């Protein structure tokens, strides 16, 4: 079940459960017969990528369950950092060194089944009560609280004060609908975030000469790849080199975009097959539908082309 983007609820009647939004990778985890299986929201197998989550089996003490949550890597301030967890994505067998350098935490916010009984038709408030009663004890697991006595705007201000991504509000009476984006779940971000397709790149200039200057980004539509603009910030030198190597391997001679690009960008463009998805943050969309002040957040190997 996915949240719709929107303004935070006023919540005068306390009918919304409001939680802070975690910036990581959505993970549905199934525990049965002592075995743990981890899947992304697009059903990709992440079991080997996040072996730490095997701790769920002993934490459940032999019970079977299906849980929904966010797999995150925390910074020194305890905030989720997508740039950090990106180092774990695409690695099916992480080395002990990588596991130590980028540990993860599974932030659990929903319980979909327990002991073989589906809970999808139960209200969110009851599912969370059953989840809380499990009292899961493991350093890799967190079940964060939610708040009903504050407005979404108040929670969003607190999120801003602590450098968090935003808040998610869920109707206490909402049932769980797998794969659907529901108005009963609402996310409010301090900055907008979108998953985009890379259609090309331009070489850097000055201090970036010979390296990556900007990514040319698009959105998949029924008519083809629609140009969203270019993004030239949000990575360090190591990430830039890795991106450039990855893009060079999927080069193509012509533009994958359905409309012509601005001449200045088209002249310098290096086109690529539109198969890589990444995330950007941006302030707003222009009247032309272009990203305003985008910042690169990282590749999303857990997502297919969108």
Name the helicity range. 10-25%
Structural class: alpha+beta
Radius of gyration of CA atoms, rounded to a whole number: 21 Å
Looking at CATH, the homologous superfamily of the largest domain is DNA ligase/mRNA capping enzyme
Strand content: 25-35%
Principal-axis shape: globular
Could you state the oligomeric state of the chains shown? single chain
Low-confidence blocks of residues = none
Task: Outline the fold blueprint.
Elements: E1 2-5, E2 16-20, E3 25-32, E4 35-40, H1 56-60, E5 65-72, H2 82-85, H3 96-101, E6 105-114, E7 117-118, H4 124-133, E8 141-142, H5 152-161, E9 166-171, E10 181-189, E11 192-203, E12 212-221, E13 224-231, H6 237-248, H7 263-268, E14 270-271, E15 277-282, E16 284-285, E17 291-292, E18 295-299
Parallel strand pairs: 1-10, 6-8
Antiparallel strand pairs: 2-9, 3-4, 3-5, 5-6, 6-7, 9-10, 11-12, 11-14, 11-15, 12-13, 15-18, 16-17
Explain what you see:
By secondary structure, this protein is an alpha+beta fold. It has three domains: 1-21 and 145-190, Dna Ligase, domain 1, CATH 3.30.1490; 23-143, DNA ligase/mRNA capping enzyme (D-amino Acid Aminotransferase, Chain A, domain 1), CATH 3.30.470; 192-299, Nucleic acid-binding proteins (OB fold (Dihydrolipoamide Acetyltransferase, E2P), Beta Barrel), CATH 2.40.50.140. It is 17% helix and 35% strand. It is built from seven helices and 18 strands. The chain has helices spanning 56-60, 82-85, 96-101, 124-133, 152-161, 237-248, 263-268; strands spanning 2-5, 16-20, 25-32, 35-40, 65-72, 105-114, 117-118, 141-142, 166-171, 181-189, 192-203, 212-221, 224-231, 270-271, 277-282, 284-285, 291-292, 295-299. Strands 3, 4, 5, 6, 7 and 8 form a six-stranded mixed beta sheet that branches. The longest helix has 12 residues, at 237-248. The radius of gyration is 21 Å and the shape is globular. It starts with a strand and ends in a 7-residue tail after the last strand. 33% of the residues are buried.
């Amino acid at each position: 079940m996915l949240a719709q983007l929107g303004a935070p609820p006023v919540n005068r009647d306390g009918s919304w459960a409001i939680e802070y939004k975690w910036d990581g990778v959505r993970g549905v985890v199934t525990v049965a017969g002592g075995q743990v299986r981890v899947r992304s929201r697009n059903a990709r197998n992440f079991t080997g990528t996040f072996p730490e989550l095997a701790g769920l089996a002993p934490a459940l003490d032999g019970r079977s369950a299906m849980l929904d949550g966010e797999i995150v890597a925390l910074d020194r301030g305890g905030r989720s950092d997508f740039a950090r967890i990106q180092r774990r994505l695409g690695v099916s067998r992480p080395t002990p060194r990588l596991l130590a350098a980028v540990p993860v935490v599974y932030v659990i916010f929903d319980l979909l089944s327990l002991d073989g009984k589906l809970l999808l038709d139960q209200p969110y408030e009851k599912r969370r009560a059953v989840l809380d009663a499990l009292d899961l004890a493991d350093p890799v697991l967190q079940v964060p609280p939610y708040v009903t006595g504050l407005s979404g705007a108040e929670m969003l201000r607190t999120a801003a004060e602590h450098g968090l991504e935003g808040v998610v509000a869920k109707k206490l009476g909402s049932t769980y609908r797998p794969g659907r984006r529901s108005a009963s779940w609402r996310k409010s971000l301090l900055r907008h975030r979108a998953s985009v397709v890379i259609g090309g790149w331009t070489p850097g200039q000055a201090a970036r000469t010979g390296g990556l200057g900007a990514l040319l980004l698009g959105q998949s539509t029924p008519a083809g790849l629609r140009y969203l603009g270019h993004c030239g910030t949000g990575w360090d030198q190591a990430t830039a080199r890795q991106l450039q190597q990855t893009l060079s391997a999927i080069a193509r001679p012509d533009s994958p975009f359905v409309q012509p690009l601005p001449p200045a960008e088209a002249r310098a463009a290096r086109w690529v097959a539109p198969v890589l998805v990444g995330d950007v943050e941006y302030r707003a969309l222009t009247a032309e539908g272009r990203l305003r002040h985008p910042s690169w957040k990282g590749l999303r190997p857990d997502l297919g082309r969108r």
